[in-house]
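A quick aside before the break. I want you to see a complete sequence-to-structure record at least once, exactly as it would be stored in a machine-readable document. Don't worry about memorizing anything.
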Amino acid sequence: MLQFMLAAILSSSLGGAISSQAGAPPVTKVAFLRFDETDQRILDRLEPGGTVIVFSPGGDPLVAAQTSDWLLSNFDRVDIAAFCLSSCAEILVRKASIQSKLHFREMPIVGFHHNSLIFGELVDEEQKLQAQRCFRDTDTLLAELIRGSNGSLEIVEIQMEKLGSTRASVSLNAGSCEGRYVAPTHNYWLPTSSQLRALYGLGFTGSVCADSFECLTEKLPQFGKKGQSFVAAGRTYRLVENDGAIEVKVSAE
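That is the input. The structure line, written in tokens, reads:
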């Protein structure tokens, strides 16, 4: 699936995103990022300057913040292509918007799910202190980015409502915090371009896949998994398997 996505981006989306420095092999400014320790070798291959194309399923939000700062310091524009989920949407998209460097390239899927601020709202009262200790740095980062992008912390409640979860728990495993959501209704909320501007306070050029029913029904089966559920523009898109193929079942939200 990821190979298919990368091939599609390289063949149809790159445009001027390839360096043509005389005497040197071309450097493709495309980065598939997981926001973990594996990203550094990808970043090392990128030639600074111009535009970088990024797509990502998300990862560690604190790593996402560091990587985003590096990208924004080394490139004039960050193009989001194909899909940008979880910390890619929460962190990179917000940081690029704040610096007026954000472009959505060929209607990517931009998806938000449960973040640490939502998690803190959903845990039982006796676990709230533990959750605050576990996710203090991430909570601070998200709150600063929400305010920095002219958003409101009310977006936490809106996002939580869209996703449909009502409970969560936190535990310690080998000294590391682990969070678990109990039976979320949807895996991701995919805001439209107008919602990204009005509710998230983002500034950008281009548009996202959630603006188009046709885009969602075409692209969601390309990267989603059987059983996943997405909510966008008043509809629910649930991925089901039919004769070995992933299809989209659409219903009212």
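Two observations worth writing down. Residues 212-253 form one domain. Residues 61-74 form the longest helix (14 residues). We'll return to this after the break.
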